[in-house]
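User: Run a structure prediction on this.
Assistant: Running it now.
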Amino acid sequence: MQLAEWAKAPILAAVIFIPLERLWPWRRQQILRQGWTADLAYVSVNGLFVWLGITALLFAVTAAQQSWLPTGPAAFFSRQPLWLQTVEALLVGDFCLYWAHRALHRSSLLWRFHAIHHSIEELDWAAAYHSHPIDAVILKGAALGSVWALGFSPVAIGIYMSIYGWVSFVVHANVKVSPGPLRWIVSSPAFHHWHHSNEPEGRDRNFAAIVSLWDFIFRTAFLPAGRMPRVYGTDEGAPPAYADQLLQPFRKRRQAMPIMPGNADALVEQAT
C-alpha cells in the first residue's frame, strides 16, 4: 500500500464508523474516548513509522527471494486467476498472522510492545491504529511478508491487505453486529472484543484477524453466547502520552504478561 492511500484510510473510516458507533453501539461511550490525543498521534504519526518498517521488511524479503528462495511457488501462484490468488493470499497471510499474534502474547519481550495495544480500556474503530510501531510491523509483516515471499501478484496482495485493514476497523469498532452462522469462519467485533478483555476467561484467546476458524482449529477460541466483556485493558496499563507509550517497552520489564494456556480446551460456547 502506498503511503498516500494509507493516509486516506482513517479519514474514510471515521466517516463510516463514527455514525455507526452512535447508532448501534455495544457499549455507550463518548465519541472521543479517554486518551484520544494519543489516538490522534497513532493515526497521524504512527502510520509513517509502520510504513517505513514494512517497506524495509519487503526489501529484505525481495532480497531473500532473489538469493535463496525457490522460484517455483512464485511461478505457481502468479499463474492462477486473480480471485483464487486473493483467497489464497488471505488464508496464508491470516494463518501467519495468527501465529505471530500468539507469539506476541507468549514472549515476555514481545508482549512489552503488544501490551500497548491491549492497554486500551474503551474499544472503537480507532483502536485499530493504537499499536506500538514494532508490534504493528511484526503483525503486518507476518501477513504481508508471507504472501509477498510466495509471489502472489501485487493486485491480489493489495486486495488482501485492503480487506485486512478494513476488517481491523470492523473488529475493533464499538458496533453491535454479528456474522451469524459465519462466526465460525470470520472474525467480528464480538469475537475480537473478547481478545481485548481483561477478564481471565477471555485472555489469550481469539488471535485471528480475519479467519476465526484458525482459533477454533487450534483451540484458542472463546465466544460466549449473548454477552460481551465488562472490562478491557491490562493490569499494568500504559502512560497517556504517545511518546511515553513508545518508550515504555524499553524502560522496564513488564510484570503482568499473560500466560498462554498449555493444552487447555478452547472455551467455546455457541453464540445466539
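The chain has one domain: 34-251.
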